[in-house]
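Let's do one together. I've listed all components of the complex below, 272 residues spread over two lines.
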Amino acid sequence: MVPLSYYLVLSGILFACGVAGFLIKRNIITIFMSIELMLNGVNLSFVAFAANWKALSGQVFVFFVMVVAAAEAAVGLAIIISVYRNRETLNVDRINLLKL
Amino acid sequence: MLHLILFSIFAVLAVAGAINLLIQRHPINSALSLIVVMASLAVEYLLLGAEFVAAVQVIIYAGAIMVLFVFVIMLLNAGEEERSEGSRVATMIGIPAMLVGSGLISWILLAHSNTQAVPAGALPGPPRTIAWLLFHDFLLPFEVTSVLVLIAIMGAVVLAARPVSSPPARED
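Okay, and this is what the predicted structure of the assembly comes out as:
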């Protein structure tokens, strides 16, 4: 028997790590991986709430989140390839054409 | 008790993987630690009785999506991350913000919620039950996601394909 709040704390820690990675990493691929980490943290709280409230819809929503994450990964990585082809760098500090 | 021990082991593993993702400089190391996070989350799902979600987590997340990531890292020959001035400021704000944020969330959840114990495996999520929900109650969202995936495939092909007729104009 694991208390519900333990799962939620783990989920919150993973989400916070994802946010921190999004802020401190400079490589565009690693930033993208931080977004996946945030999605994983949210998925864990979905499944924990589903088990707590005996509602299987939570698990179906995790399935939808995974589908959206897969679509996002495919399009996002294609955008990264396209950016690399045009700018020849993966460092987000050098992709600054819109910066004043 | 056994559930609590298993939960603790894999929770520590997941958090260690997440922190290793932040520390590592090379993207391939970050990708491998993200796989560790996803695999230990699959075990957490199994502890919660979500068998289908655990299987899909391993197959789609740790399998398909991470293979895509590793493939792109190899394709672009991504090297070590370069540090820059802006990133130092972000580190100074980001790491304390992460600690404060996760600490606040943990404190609120542990102190102000009725810590109901989740009985491990009390709500089995076998593929049969999930499929019933997916194809009856959530049929419309399911069909909409199929359109989404189709558009994503076409978008990925269009974005990643090299233009055939005219070479890309370099403007720098």
